[in-house]
Amino acid sequence: MTQEVATTLTAKQLQHLIEAAIFSAAKPLSVTQLLETVLADTSVTREQAKQALSELQRDYRSRGIELVKLASGYRFQTRPELAKQLNKVRQNSAPKYSRALLETLALIAYQQPITRGEIETVRGVSVSSQSIRTLTERGWIKVVGHKEVPGRPALLATTKGFLDYFGLASLSELPKLSDETALQALLVGTSSRQNKELVNE
């Protein structure tokens, strides 16, 4: 795209380009990524891109698909309130996770950074290496350091990938813990969050 074309790019054309880019991307796209890729040869500013994203979010408010801002950027996903119906479409492809794995993930999410030993103390049972491996391979947790105690055990914390999958922009958006357990709070709407991947399939 030449500079001349870029200067004649209308607000609607900009929205269409950003919309198509986010829809076709395998992962969320940030404003910076948009500016460095599909908008690289245009004169579109960061503020103009943000404005176009805001207008797209507004346009999608009344639809079955929404544009959301996550930790890593923007993505399209199906609305959580449609999860029950959409589960009928995904029931054979949605990944299944064990209760033990989800309990481990919940404890890491709410008490991070935390060691494997501390997780085992809370749960009262040992944490399998497979659970830690699965969570790591899924891109949901990572080692962020080591606790300064004998043995220097690894400290585990969640990643941006975890936030993206569960539809969160930051850890502050985790469900508040009142009378619920960490597991119950984390599992609320898990199936609906899995449905958010429908858009890109």
From TrEMBL:
Keywords assigned by UniProt, alphabetized: Cell cycle, Cell division, Chromosome partition, Cytoplasm
InterPro entries: ScpB_csome_segregation, WH-like_DNA-bd_sf, WH_DNA-bd_sf
Signal peptide: none
Presence of keyword Cytoplasm: yes
Gene3D superfamilies named in the record: Winged helix-like DNA-binding domain superfamily/Winged helix DNA-binding domain (1.10.10.10)
Keyword Cell cycle: yes
Pfam families referenced in this protein's UniProt entry, alphabetically: SMC_ScpB
Xref: NCBIfam families: SMC-Scp complex subunit ScpB
Protein name, per record: Segregation and condensation protein B
